[in-house]
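pasting for the record
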Amino acid sequence: MPAARARRALPLLRRALRAAWLVLTRVGALFVLLQAYTTLRKTYFVRPAAVAFDHALDLLALQAALRIDVELQLQRWALGQAWPIELANAYYRQMKLGVYLSAALALLLAPTAFRRVGSAFVLATLLAFPWYALYPLAPPRFMGPYGYPFVDTLAAWGPVPPAGAGLAGANPYAAMPSMHIGWTIFAALWLAAALPWRRIGPILGAFTLR
């Protein structure tokens, strides 16, 4: 009987090991890509801060001229609720973990969608990369001294993402394009493909985009 159970368990063990290997290699490749992206962006694509602030002022003036400058009003609403700020800050800090988990689910449950969305993920990341050198941009949370009273919620609620060296370091003037939004869209697509039952995946994906 033990030998029979072992023979029945062997295919399950093989499938589990194969799944683990796929997650390790495929999602591991995404991890390497994003770490290389982050390291190169903060090391070789940092221009003087004054350039980033000049671009931010230009963009804010353009938004005002087009009457689409809604960020300040939206933040004021969120500040009155508290929980949207805490939720947004938590997601901002853990976004990459969410991307990796979504990719792993799609890899195991919807491999075709994983490959299709993954190809677009890599292409979008590569296309975004040079723009941090071409158009450095200060984020709204830095614009208080320039007459735009945005609250730096990362500083107020913490912790602020570190800048400079290290795997966790960031380029603080890489606000355009926002790959926090870009990568979140791909994570939402992976979730939608991996968890189609009763639209669980699309619902979770839509929630991550809020």
